[in-house]
Amino acid sequence: MNVKIEKLVKRFPGRDKNSPGVTAVDNFDLDIPDGKLVCLLGPSGCGKSTLLYMICGLETPTSGKIYFGEDDMTDVPPEKRGVGLVFQNYALYPHLTVRQIIKFPLENVKGEARLSKEEMEKKALEAAKLVQIENLMDRKPGQMSGGQQQRVAIARALVKMPNVLLMDEPLSNLDARLRLQTREEIRRIQRETGITTVFVTHDQEEAMSISDMIVVMKNGVLHQMGKPQQVYDDPVNLFVASFLGTPKINIFEGEVKGGALYIGEGDKGQRVLDVKGVDDRKVWVGVRPEGFEVSENGALTCSLKGIDVMGRDISVVCNNPASGEVIRAIISAENEVDESGKEVRFDLKPHKTFLFDKETEERLRFT
Ligand code: ATP
Q1: What was the pLDDT predicted at 24?
Q2: Is 180's pLDDT higher than 90?
Q3: Rounded Cα gap, residues 2 and 245, in angstroms
Q4: At the topology level of CATH, where does 3-243 sit?
Q5: Cβ-contact 195, 165 below 8 angstroms
């Protein structure tokens, strides 16, 4: 089932007439293709959860439309949308067994659509098998690990085979190891069932690893949508470039003069690249950690602070006056860097170097 969002707005009023209120989701257009897993990614407070709750019907939009396939869902109550929901805190009933918890959504169905007891049992077992907890059916939540509890919550959301599965930070309560394991599980289950899934997270690594597409948002506004690698390789602005990637992209102050890029300004600028197609102006320069090449006569000189060995790669940690932060360059361990030296020089890889307008922070493309 594809999900289409048109010009969606959610404004929360202020507490009283002196507080201005918040636009949590601002004129949002989004097309989620059938059968894909899409992550809503952005910093805390950017409106991810509000958008998710509007898709499931728990929040009413101020304006705009939500469609599932051809059907306008904007005013349809949550229980009639055919959505499964998984929250950060698994919200399992402590006094029920796993079997009863998973069956709960089926027990709630009234009228003709209600299944027989045997059919409910069969569906509950199928959902439990999908998340591999079929041997825990008689346990209660208190007798299970956090990871197992979250699987129960996923089985409960899947038991009615929803049109759309919605997950709000489902992994945040799990420890690091379980988080990795459970995210792989979610990916597997999503692929097996082919259910269109919307997954909210503020963790860019999680989003990059799990999703078919990511939607990067800030202050209720969509900044970029695309395949994770495509967004990483081709960010539209400084915010998106900085939000994706570990270690973070390195940011310098720079200047374009006569088709050449200088890092640093005025007399202190170092000419680092030819950048055709960009007019003379001040810019932010973003260089991915893997965008540096150590070279004896390299164009950019940095003062060396240290070297972190990471096995296959090494991380060269250095400073440059044009950057307010420590620079991290990831290079192959086959490179030799003189650790006792005071300076290290780099050339920059053009496809790993991005320019942004100093004012608007929008990307400036060069050839
Ligand atoms: P987090 O990752 O911290 O959960 P989020 O990206 O999911 O953040 P939302 O919870 O959607 O963000 O909140 C978006 C904005 O709307 C925030 O500024 C928040 O304070 C505000 N907001 C959310 N719910 C309400 C509400 N019921 N009343 C007033 N403001 C709200």
Answers
A1: 96
A2: no
A3: 29
A4: Rossmann fold (3.40.50)
A5: yes
- Closest residue CA from atom 19 of ligand 1: 45
| CA–CA gap between residue 185 and residue 208 (Å, rounded) | 15
Q: Per-domain residue ranges for the chain?
A: 3-243, 250-364
Residue 340, ligand 1, Cβ within 6 A? no
Give the chain's end-to-end CA distance (angstroms, integer): 40
Q: Is the Cα torsion angle 320, 322, 323, 329 positive or negative in sign?
A: negative
Per-chain mean pLDDT for the chain: 92
- pTM (whole model) above 0.85: yes
For the record, the structure tokens of 10 come out as: 């959610």
Backbone phi, then psi, for 5, in 5-degree steps? Answer: -120, 130
CB 314 within 8 A of CB 337: yes
State the Cα–Cα distance between residues 16 and 272, nearest whole angstrom.
Answer: 54
- Asked if 83 and 57 count as a contact pair (C-beta separation under 8 A), the reply is yes
User: Which residue has the least CA distance to atom 9 on ligand 1?
Assistant: 47
**Pairing outcome for strands 213-218 and 221-226:** antiparallel
